[in-house]
């Protein structure tokens, strides 16, 4: 279009975009050189950049290329070129830059006015770099550069202006800039003149390449920069330098276009022009000679300027014009040009620009004086009237700055006029009356922002008049003003009906505010003065400057002001009496207080004397104040304030009578005001008032305030009054009577003790109690008011369950601080005995709270914090006596019974288990020590140990809090930083020694009593104690560790038992040291009485000892114990022989006694037998391979006797020595049996095996089995079985070596029938003790093979047991537990809710029994044959128990643990051992396993249950099965097929695990039948896919496939069972066996039997199960084929 030729299409390989920069590089030498500035005017741009000749060859080629880029038109190329040029110059040397200088001005002059902001900024950046490099070399080109450079400082684009300004600063120092401007001023002025008057938007730009808007913007930018540049020029150069070029300046100022800039449409240009006029008026007024009319017309014609950016410049120019142009008013018509605009501006409040305009009004007014007619007030009336109207404008009222500016200007101008016209009294008073009072009246009746400013300025004016009191006129004006103000106040107060919008209290408050300003306005602020016009005025101000002294003038002024105030107060009293209200009491009180109150009462009394000459000051109370007080309409707080103010000026007896009348006032609110005033300064220093505050009426009233506070009816002011009353006077005594304080304390204590009953007021009462505590517990009072409040506050702090909604954290902080401060003070001030008694009471509070909490860690830590804070409080006062106090706080005597009981049962456990011996002393558990509240106290014992250690290891620093974990880097800090309480007390090693002892007890407890209620808590605190102890010891020095070692050594060697275990714990887990060295150090210092300690140390350290370390002699039993402990040592045959010699000697002394065949054996002799049995057991376990025939015979033959005699003396099972013997005998049996099994597994020939199997084991097993049954019966009857747990756990190991063959042996009459075992086991399953439950479960699992065998015999012989299947034996317990578990889980929705069963509950007992029973039933199914399993499944289906069982499993199945843990629970049966901890995790693991086992053993029944569920539950069950079970079951099925395929004669199997497929091929001769089985992903829930790819034998294969599916899908058969059935059917078919004519199968799919029953008529054969079903469903007994009777 437009006649342009179309461009050809780009060629295929022309892939580079066009680039003007690259084109410039190819131009080479085509660019013409610089032709000078003579051509600048020939081009629209100033000069052309694209028609230059070739560049100078001396210029760097890179720079040449860049300059060619700069010649392009597009901005992007220019910017890139300028950036490259800046970088190049920055990195070039000075000579390179000098070569560029001739060429640079040409480009610079064009680019500094470019339309693109970025180009201008980049140009100045290049210029800056050139200046920095060229330095003085720029001088020859300065005149070419200076003009555009100079004006570019004011480029409207700030980044460009900033760079240009910085370049100018870097080029010329401050002292040289003026010379540089003067040097180039002609070029600058020519440039300015050219741009301001010659250039236009069209001439500055090439209109072909820019839009009109861009051209206008550029022109405006040039005008602004030139006007500001001219302004800068005038500011910098001197007047002489301006006069040197006055012609050029006159050409600018005298140009007609110059005066038009004041009317320019661009506000910024107008503002700049007016600023320029101001500069000219100040710096070069001679340039305005002869131009007065132009200046005044342009300036005053724009006074109405509304643009806030221009307005300041206009008014500045106006003021300077007035002061610069002589007789300025002659050049304009003031009445037409100036005054109307001024009135309009004032009337409109400055048109929203008052903050700019009004500060100039006073100078303007001063300049107007020469032209104002002095005889006329019309000007001033208009001036101030318009000012006042401007105050009321919305724009003024809405803006604080605007209103302040107007108000300030008004008062300043008024003061100026008064001073100028002070000799004209009538005029000045008229101005005051007409204008000043009008404004004051407006401020009194209307609320606006300027009121305070007007009041302040008027106050300053009034004080100014007062300070110039030597001038009579000013004094008269002051008096006139005060009189007028009083009249104004009275008029506005009493004539408010005319202003219904304003209330008296508002007007009076404004009056009060004004009077305060009249009093408080201080010295006038130092202000800068402007000298005005005539010398006469100056002389007057000089006279006014000679003021009287400040004190003298202030006194006179205050006297006058007080007279005014008294008259106002008199008016207020009159108003109160007239209106009979309380409206003005507050203002009256404030006036009297703020000014001279004595004068008020004196003058008031003087007035009263006019009626009663005998009137005194006290009569003011009786005649006026008391009447107000008893009046229902006039009684208020300020009446009471005035009453007490009067008390300051009356006699003591009069004061006392007034106070007595106050006590009789029935109004309690009035009494509260009286008390409040009495407690205020200065009345609280008056002894008479002190006595009055202790009167009964006042005391009762203060106590009633507490009642109001408790009942949430107390106003805030009464609460403050009560706190104020509970303070001390200057003598250290409380203002309130002691009995009142005691009552207050009692009431507060009751609230603190029962704070939950006061949910609303507990917080405020606690805060008040903390406040009272600080008042009553002082060095002066001590415990005068008892310690109940302190104890109540302390008890509240001990409570960790305080609801923050009832008592806030801030209040609790107050409570804690209160009792700590009180304790710190009392501990120091009281005698030591009393301090300890007080501390013991606090400790009792802690112990009671400790006994009440449920031992959660956070609650216990809270008590630790409380204890530590108490000890810190004591330490602050008595740092050297902390040991006595900490002994009180940490005393655990209240847990003595519990501690002794725990130690006793742990000793029993260690003894029965054989861990520690007791060869010399009897072991007893005192029945008195047994607890009344169950196992909870056991945990409390260890919790207290943790509390003790936590307190001891807490920091002593003030404000430090208890931390659970110490920071590692803090261990190596200063001693002060790591100082803990343990460092500063005596016998600190004893405390830690006891903690270690308790740690040893806890270790023993945790090893034995796992299934108790408090096990988890004790385990938690054991871990915490161990960690805390380790951290604490790291903080202690070597001296302390040595003392601790000595303590542990002495205790362990003398006492043994858990002290020995504590030594082992200390030097293995907490502070490791070589154990052999510790043992040698401890034992070598033993004395003759320390044999037991040495034995226990040997037993505890045995794993780390060698026989050579035991160099000390023991008696025979001691040698047996030592050998047993060190039995793992190598090369001890000699020691074994020596000890056995001693053992044989013991046996020979009394063989029956040695065999435990006699009764009444002493403790010592019993221990000999026990230790010998234990030694034999250890020999069998650790030294069996090196055992001699002699030792074997001795051990096993003795074992027979021991086992038999233990059974005979089973009635002694309650005795601990008998339990220890029984456990030892059982372990000997187990170890011997295990060794025999191991030898058998290794196929090693040994005489021991035959002897054991053929002769010994059955007898021993029989005795132990009978003893187990006896113990089960006895333990089931025990209510507290915890003391029997060691026996239960240890003797339970026998169940791992129990043989069902001996129990089911029918010809052995000495052994109870297996039914007794079965019945007892079922009974044990529901026992409350989990260990006994496991006893029953483990025995039942041992009996499972025998039970299956009995059912197998019954099925095979068709002679069922009289009680039916074994399943029937479990039915009673199964139904019982099933019903309980069902009722427990009935509220849990299947698929939505999960039940977590907590241990040590009835729910856990029955749920655990329920799951164990099902595990036994599933184990029976697992070990049964296919035929028997069919019977079991049929029983389960008929009883309909499985459905609810599966539902319950999913209600108990865990969901919150990790996926891996859950999957492991499904794949592996959980370990269930007698010593295991039975907790919720055990239940959850068992649940997962039972579901997996159900799918394995009863897939058809589970599938039926699954299909009966709704879709949501079905999907959930399928997801669980597919995720956790299916994969494993499929793998098991396939592995079973692979392992058993060799059993088939004619069938081969091919397994494809990846696709879960099995291909079975049956081959007969050369024919094949192929069966393809595919397992689903959700196996066994999903249906199998079965296909017959190859077939023979006609249509019979369909029946066989149906039988296969029936076996697998509907009859709980495995894939292996189905294939076996299919294979056997084919085998029988081809062997000629006739098939059943009902199911058409050779083998029955359930019983796997062949057809046996035949019809007598048709001779057809049938399966007995099929025929029975036919009879039952058809209700006939005829043959299915021939229909004859069967």
UniProtKB/TrEMBL annotation:
Query: Compositionally biased, Polar residues: which spans?
Result: 10-22
Pfam families (UniProt xref): Ltn1_1st, LTN1_E3_ligase_6th, UBC_like
Q: Could you tell me the keywords of this UniProt record?
A: Cytoplasm, Metal-binding, Repeat, Transferase, Ubl conjugation pathway, Zinc, Zinc-finger
- The name this protein goes by in its record: E3 ubiquitin-protein ligase listerin
Of the GO CC terms on this record, one is:
cytosol
Q: Where in the cell is it found?
A: Cytoplasm, Cytosol
Q: Which family does it belong to?
A: Belongs to the LTN1 family.
Source organism of this protein record: Phaedon cochleariae
Q: What lineage does UniProt assign to this protein's organism? A: Eukaryota, Metazoa, Ecdysozoa, Arthropoda, Hexapoda
